[in-house]
Each structure stands twice: as structure tokens, then as C-alpha cells.
Amino acid sequence: MVPVPRRPKVPPEAERSGVIGASAPVCAVCGGPRSPRKRETCSDRCRAELSRRRRKDVQRIRDEEIRTLLEVALKKLEEGTP
Ligand SMILES: [Zn+2]
Description:
Elements: H1 12-18, H2 44-80
The protein binds zinc ion.
């Protein structure tokens, strides 16, 4: 049995050109075009917004963690009550 390499239905070239943003990077905040030299965002303003969002996310995740821990702690207290 000789393994026959299967041809992909879409040639890699066509696939790449079909994907929007593959060659032109977009801003992670406003979705607008950004310079490939810049990372993630198009401007300092969007960069500040991105870091603000991330801080918020971190805060939210932390709050959820604390809430879960408190719920577990309360459950333990209730279980421990004679
Ligand atoms: Zn932007």
C-alpha cells in the first residue's frame, strides 16, 4: 500500500488570499487597519483602551475566583456546624 497524498480542495495560495486580515493586520480594538510595525492596535489611544479592557478582565476573573472561594468556604462552614 502506497499512501497517496490527498490534494487539498483549496490551494494554499487561494486560501491565504481569501482570508481577510492575513496580510493586512487589523487593530484589536477598533478593527481598523494597523501598521504591521505596531503590535495589536493601530494607535496609542487604542493601545490604552486594550490595556484598560485587559485590566477589567483580570479584575472580573479575580472577583469570580474570590466569589467561588467564598461560596466553598460558606459551604464548609455550614457542613461543619454540628
Ligand atoms: Zn484602533
